[in-house]
Amino acid sequence: MALNVVMLERGTRYPVPLPNENFLYHCSGVKFELKLGDGYPGNSNAHKSPSGTAFVSNQRIVFLPKTTTHENSTNTDAVNSFTIPHANLRDSKFVQPLFGANRFEAQTVPLTGGQGNIPPHAALILSFNEGGGFDFAGIARKIAERMSETGTIPPHEEELPGYDGPPPPPLSNSAPTSAPPSASAHPEDSAPGYPSDAPPGYEQWDSKS
Description:
- GO terms for molecular function: chromatin DNA binding; transcription coactivator activity.
- 9% of the residues lie in helices and 30% in strands.
- Strand 2 (23-37) and strand 3 (44-57) form a beta hairpin.
- The protein has an 8-stranded antiparallel beta sheet, covered by helices on one side.
- It has 1 helix and 8 strands, in the order ββββββββα.
- It has one domain (2-150): PH-domain like (Roll), CATH 2.30.29.
């Protein structure tokens, strides 16, 4: 896991994929917090960004503040980008508070060999102020389950088991009708290679179960 190391495709706000990486979902309007330390006063700190875009791929989670461009994503003057492999997340959960935005929370584990620039005892919190958190957290959970079962990162060409939506209404005998366009799961348009919807067949889950 690391701050300000994510490379972006030139002229866009999309991360350059790693080898064999497939970005599965992204949503904007996300608040980022990375709490450092053990929680005791005077021994804690936090990196924050009030709004940005969160991405989830088969390999990692990426966050980009809304002010990030391909020219400043690696600058160290502020939080300009964040990345963490799924293998370095522990105790992840999806929180649905009575008031406020839904959150994805997880404890982070330092990279092997001390790589990265984040100290141990860090907690990642992503608050989804514009929706999309349920799908984001569900995909991250499916990847964690697959890695736990196989011990490997899901191949980039492999589709995650997903949610089966309701069947379409029966067609009228008089004339076929076209289904209305579905709404985007998040407020921003997708770029090629970054689908706006969850993978086909994606299974929903309830964080309270």
